[in-house]
Design brief:
alpha+beta, 40% helix, 549 residues, 5-stranded antiparallel beta sheet, 7-stranded antiparallel beta sheet, Biofilm_reg_signaling
Length: 549
C-alpha cells in the first residue's frame, strides 16, 4: 500500500515543478529561457547538475546552458558534440518511456567521444538503485507539433537523494522536458515575431520589405495566430487567422472572421478574457471548437500599428495547452486522492475540513438578530461599536463584513433542531485477520469494496475519505444528532454483507465514532474527538458483536 507521506512528497514535487515551469515563461529572451531550463533542473527536479544541449542549424548539439557547478559551466558551455555521437547515446542503455538512462556499466565506452561531459569519480553502488557518478540520464526535447524533430537534449546528473529516480521522478523529468521544449520554441518564435514587429515600424520601404517576413511567420507558425480589430464597435473581431488556429478550433478562416474571441470563449472564462490587457496581455482559458467541445489554450496579445497614425490591431498567439492542463489535473488528483480506493486522502480531508472551520471560539455565539446586524454592517464606524453597544472587534476574526458561516455542534443532551457538520470516524473490525490469512491483495480488495459501499450511502455533497490503513472518515453537513446516528447505522449495515474476494466470501465489521466540527477547533481536534468516540463505541461492544457489525 502507498505510504501515507507519499502524497505530501508528490504535492511538494508538483509545486516545485509548477514553479520551475512558470519560470520558463517569464524569461525575456532565448538565452534567458535556456538558462531558466537549466536552473529549473537543479531547483525544481532535485538534481545537482543540469545541462541544456541545443540542436544547431547544422545538426550538431551545443551546450547552451549549464547549472549546478560554476567550474563545469565555464569548461563545457559553448562546446559542441556531433549529432552522430548524440544519436548513439540516445540509442544505448535503457528506455524509460521518453527518457534514456545509460548505467555506468555501459557508459564507460562514451568517455572518449566528442560529446562535452563532466563527471567525477566515485565508489561502486552499494545497492541496486544507487546513483553512480558515471550514470547518465537524458531527456530528449522535441519540437511541438507531435513530430520527432529533435530540438535538444536535457542531461541531468547526481540526484540529491543519491538514488536513481523512480516512476514519479521520471514522469516529472519527462513532463519538464516537454514544457522546456515548448518554452524554447516559443522563445524562438517570440524573438522572430519581435524582429518582424520592429521591421514593421520602420519607414515605408523597410515596412514593405518586412511584410513577407511577417506573413511567413504568421502563416507557418506552429501555434495558432490571429489578427483582430482593436477599438471601435468591432473591437476584438477576427480579421485574419492562420492555418494552425483553424485546425486547432476546427473552423475555416471564412467562418472565424464572423467571430471574436469573446464569442468563442467558455462562459466561465469570459471574465478572464476581459481582464486580459490588450497591451501584451496573457491568459489561459478555453475556446470552443466546431464540435462543441472546449480546448485549453494560452492566449497572448501584442499590439501592432498598421501605419504611423493608422489603426492598431491585436496580434494574438494561441497555444494549445490541453495536454499540460490534463497533466496538471491528473497530478493534482493523484496528490490529493488515495491511490488504492480513489477516495480523498488524509491531506485532502484536512483541507476540506479546514475550509469549514475558523478561529472563532465555539463558546462565542450570537443571536439571529446579531448575525443579521453583522452581515449588514450595523456598526457605528465613528466609535467602533455595533448598534447593540458591543465592540465590533471583540472577537478576533469576526467583524461586520465576516460572511463566513460559522458551524456549531448539536446539543448531545437534547434535540434542539441544531444542524451541524458530522464527522464519522470508521475503523474496520476484523480487517487485520483478512490481511494475515489471505494476504494484502485480499485486504486491498476489501478496502476498495468498503470505499464503494460507503460512497453509495452518502449524499452528493458529503465527503468519504480514507485516512489510512483501514480507517475512513465521512463528513456530512446539515445533520442533527439523530440524523448522524442513523447515518452511522446505515453505513455499518452497508459494510456488514460478505465481500467476494478471489472466489471466497469474507466479512468485516465496522466501529463508528461520531464527532462534530465546530468553529474554534482545529482539524486535528475534530478528528481526534471522532477517533476517541469510535474507540469508546468499539470497547462498548463485545468482540463477537464487533465482527458481526
Amino acid at each position: 500500500m502507498e505510504a501515507e507521506s507519499e502524497p505530501y512528497v508528490r504535492l511538494a514535487t508538483m509545486r516545485q515543478l509548477h514553479q520551475a515551469v512558470a519560470d520558463l515563461n517569464t524569461a525575456r529572451s532565448l538565452a534567458d529561457t535556456l538558462q531558466s531550463v537549466a536552473d529549473g533542473i537543479v531547483a525544481g527536479l532535485g538534481y545537482e547538475l543540469g545541462c541544456v544541449n541545443l540542436v544547431r542549424p547544422d545538426g550538431d548539439l551545443v551546450v547552451a546552458a549549464f547549472a549546478g557547478n560554476p567550474a563545469a559551466e565555464s569548461l563545457i558551455t559553448g562546446r559542441v558534440g556531433s549529432r552522430e555521437s548524440w544519436e548513439r547515446r540516445l540509442s544505448m542503455g535503457e528506455a524509460w518511456d521518453g527518457l534514456r538512462f545509460i548505467p555506468h556499466t555501459e557508459g564507460w565506452v562514451l568517455l572518449d567521444d566528442d560529446v562535452p561531459q563532466w563527471h567525477t569519480e566515485g565508489p561502486e553502488p552499494r545497492f541496486e538503485d544507487e546513483w553512480h557518478p558515471l550514470d547518465r540520464l537524458y531527456a530528449p526535447m522535441y519540437a511541438s507539433g507531435g513530430g520527432l524533430d529533435l530540438l535538444g537534449v536535457l542531461s541531468v546528473d547526481r540526484p540529491r537523494n543519491g538514488r536513481r529516480p523512480g516512476a514519479w521522478g521520471r514522469e516529472a523529468l519527462q513532463m519538464y522536458a516537454s514544457q522546456a521544449a515548448i518554452a524554447i520554441s516559443n522563445a524562438r518564435l517570440r524573438a522572430n515575431m519581435q524582429r518582424a514587429l520592429v521591421r514593421l515600424e520602420r519607414e515605408q520601404q523597410a515596412l514593405r520589405a518586412s511584410e513577407e517576413s511577417f506573413r511567413q511567420a504568421f502563416e507557418y507558425a506552429p501555434s495558432g495566430m490571429a489578427i483582430a480589430e482593436m477599438g471601435g464597435d468591432q473591437h476584438g473581431r477576427l480579421l485574419r487567422t492562420n492555418d494552425a488556429l483553424c485546425r486547432l478550433l476546427g473552423r475555416p478562416a471564412s467562418v472565424l472572421r464572423r467571430y471574436s474571441f469573446a464569442d468563442l470563449v467558455h462562459p466561465e472564462d469570459i471574465g478572464t478574457l476581459l481582464r486580459t490587457s490588450a497591451e501584451g496581455g496573457r491568459a489561459e482559458l478555453r475556446l470552443g471548437r466546431r464540435d462543441g467541445t472546449y480546448l485549453w489554450v494560452s492566449l497572448r496579445n501584442s499590439v501592432v500599428a498598421d501605419t504611423t497614425d493608422g489603426p492598431r490591431f491585436l496580434l494574438t498567439h494561441v497555444e494549445d495547452i490541453e495536454e499540460r492542463k490534463r497533466n496538471e489535473l491528473h497530478l493534482a488528483h493523484r496528490a490529493s486522492h488515495d491511490a488504492l480506493t480513489g477516495l480523498p486522502n488524509s491531506a485532502e480531508l484536512r483541507s476540506r475540513l479546514g475550509a469549514r472551520l475558523c478561529e472563532r471560539p465555539h463558546s462565542v455565539t450570537s443571536s439571529a438578530i446579531e448575525a443579521l446586524d453583522a452581515a449588514y454592517g450595523d456598526v457605528d464606524a465613528s466609535h467602533g461599536y455595533r448598534a447593540d453597544g458591543y465592540e465590533a472587534d471583540a472577537v478576533p476574526g469576526v467583524g461586520p463584513y465576516d460572511h463566513h458561516v460559522h458551524i456549531v455542534a448539536p446539543d448531545a443532551e437534547r434535540d434542539d433542531g441544531t444542524k451541524g457538520l458530522a464527522v464519522l470516524f470508521c475503523d474496520l473490525d476484523g480487517f487485520k485477520s483478512i490481511n494475515d490469512r489471505f494476504g494484502h491483495h485480499a485486504g486491498d480488495a476489501v478496502l476498495i469494496e468498503v470505499a464503494r459501499r460507503l460512497t453509495t450511502c452518502v449524499r452528493d455533497g458529503d465527503t468519504v475519505a480514507r485516512l489510512g490503513g483501514d480507517e475512513f472518515v465521512v463528513l456530512a453537513d446539515g445533520l442533527g444528532a439523530a440524523d448522524a446516528a442513523d447515518l452511522a447505522v446505515r453505513l455499518r449495515n452497508a459494510i456488514i454483507p460478505p465481500i467476494r474476494v478471489d472466489g471466497r466470501a469474507v466479512r468485516v465489521g465496522a466501529s463508528f465514532g461520531i464527532g462534530w466540527a465546530e468553529c474554534g477547533m482545529t482539524e486535528e481536534e475534530v478528528l481526534h474527538s471522532a477517533d476517541q468516540r469510535m474507540y469508546v463505541e468499539k470497547r462498548s461492544r463485545s468482540k463477537v458483536h464487533r465482527r458481526a457489525g
